[in-house]
Specification:
With about 120 residues, the chain is mainly α. The chain has five helices and no strands.
């Protein structure tokens, strides 16, 4: 008898086997860890959003929104609802990230114009 135990690395890396329970278990745990880290990482910008005033608070709010949406993506994906995660929350995460970039550029452009006007 030939018993083979272990994980075939080719299947995990390439996604060759769709119904591999070991692969699904590993992905679920990785999504759980990722979501936990995302929500933990959102604490600092959320706190700064409440404490800071002016344009910088807009940047921290946009950053917090991105981190939270991306964390929700990992939670939904962990639950096995990959179609919603990939078709709704992943594009939403990208859109919020682009909005963060635009907000950052707007705030930095406004700050640069203000510095040029005052001569500093």
């Amino acid at each position: 008898m030939n018993f083979r135990f272990g994980i075939n690395a080719r299947n995990i890396i390439t996604g060759d086997v769709k119904n591999n329970s070991v692969k699904l278990a590993i992905e679920s745990w990785l999504d759980l860890v990722s979501a936990g880290m995302m929500f933990f990482a959102a604490i600092i910008p959320a706190y700064l959003s409440l404490k800071l005033k002016g344009d910088i608070s807009k940047v921290t709010i946009a950053l917090t929104a991105f981190i939270v949406v991306h964390g929700i993506y990992h939670i939904v994906r962990m639950q096995g609802i990959e179609s919603i995660a990939d078709n709704v929350f992943e594009p939403a995460s990208i859109i919020v990230l682009i909005a963060f970039g635009i907000t950052y550029l707007g705030v930095s452009y406004k700050k640069k114009k203000k510095q040029e006007a005052t001569g500093k």
